[in-house]
Amino acid sequence: MNISTTSGRGRLLAGLLATSALAVSGLAATGAPAQSADPAGDCTAAYPVADLTQHQVVTGKTVSSGVTPEAFSGEVLGVLDSGIAPGLDMIIVRLDSPEIRRVGGIWQGMSGSPVYAQDGRLIGAVSYGLAWGASPVAGVTPYEDMDDYLGSGSGLARIKVGDSMARTIARNSDVSTTQATEGFRQLPLPISASGISQSRLSMGKHGRTYLRDLNTAKAGGAASAVSAGTASDIVAGGNLGAALSYGDVTMAGVGTATSVCNGRVVGFGHPMTFLGSTTLGLMPADAIYVQEDPLGPPFKVANVGMPVGTITDDHLTGISGTFGATPPETDVTAQAAYHDRNRAGESHSLVQDSLADLFFAQNLGNSDRVIDGIHGGSADRTYSASGTDAEGNPFTVTMDDLYQSDSDISGESVWSEADITWFLSRMTGVKVDSIDTTASYDDDTTVWTVKKLAVKMGSQWITVGRKDTLKVRPGQTLKMRGNLTSATGTSELPFSVHVPAVPKGRYGVISLTGGSDFYPRGLDRAQTPQDLIDVLAKAPRNDQAVGELDIFGPRTQVSSTTTSPFGTVLRGAKYVQVRIVF
């Protein structure tokens, strides 16, 4: 059964992607990057914060469903001096609309919603909510600062509210004075991934600190390129998406555009990932609905469309981008087969720093879709990454290996390749153009373990162990074998080690180590793709074993040999001491 065909820039799996502050995101769609006309723009003038007065009437625009902005109204409650950062004030407003009343307050996804004065000038962007949960009271980033990206600090800390402002908020809303004193904050919504469940992301870190703290959606649905919107839908008050990747796995956020002018858009009113100068995908989006949440602020469920430009700036006061050219992409394809099921999936990374995250999620999600369960088994995987190095020379890094797991073969077979991807993505001047993987899975959980060592003396095989000491001569080649065991029986693995020319009296150790217990030497020191190629060329497969003789002394000497592939994963290690005589 073929459960999916090669997607190219194909259908994106459903999921809601949360980002920072009040920005959230949904799923992406099908087709090539959108080619619709850019929005005409509004180029609205800024309203000075200094001219604002308490109870001043304001209006605004945002989207709760579809792509068309809807109006909301409100009033100014006050201004927190340097409320966002030194020299960057926060405007406090109380907002109202039928949708705000329905869900209990402003929602994740309103970030960037423009707030206007009665004369039509732009006061700022809805960006912050009260820390305690759903409320119609919002913090607004002044628009007169949003094009400057001045100020300092991460913008993620809680913004304190004094007693006077807390009492003002309490008088003008259902928020108590105590709740108001908790202050405002960007809702801590980290970059998330669609196309893979939250439980799978949480199970799979294995101590890899380089991966982001990904989260998945609370809700979502599949979409088409048409329903996910076009560039012309990105208008003031309309949906605005920013993506690290799109495809089977979309890492993105959907907030609101604040203003569009001369082919540029500014939105969110706060950072997305605070990358500064960057190349995120500028994405249209289609809102499905706003979901109430009794435990926190409501959130918008949306689908993300295809890239229509590039987000070039991700700063304290918001994100901004240019319509037209889209960021350079790294294509990540994954083919997986299990019994009569197979699938070919594809995603596209728009930020190389997030390539390892995308690779992990794409491969794990694609394999989970085929295996359709979390259980043990074995995998035969191939990996190929191509691109150009710092000098512009092409490279291709390849790896193929066997993997075994008693509990989660789709998860545990991805990590070696994810490590390689991370090392490549961090190399100075290196551009990764594509990564392709294939995986064949089955239910065999057999693994062979090195249980004993034996050495051939004359015509006899003598079993030796950690407490024994072999007396060897310089220049001698020792014929040895490892005795292997598994749930299905026993086997033998021959190997040999050469004794280097060293003075007598020196001591050492002979070891036989299964390939799955052998981390590639020098991997963490690789500086170029060629370094990685050289490291992988010397590294054993998981179904090989490494026999070594280490001679200790002023300068340790190592004699090493790698066995032929055994056909099944090998693990474990055994040792015997040696002493140089004669």
- Say how many strands there are: 32
Radius of gyration: 30 Å
Please list the strands of the largest sheet in the order they lie side by side: 3-4-5-8-7-6
Could you give a short account of the major beta sheet? 6 strands, antiparallel, barrel
- Annotation field: number of helices: 9
What structural category characterises the helix and strand content? mainly beta
Per DSSP, what share of the residues sits in E-state strands of 2 or more residues? 35-45%
> How helical, in percent, are the residues?
10-25%
Assembly type of the chains comes to: single chain
Q: What distance separates the N and C termini?
A: 67 Å
Mean pLDDT: 84
How many structural domains in the coordinates?
Answer: 3
Please tell me what the overall shape is: elongated
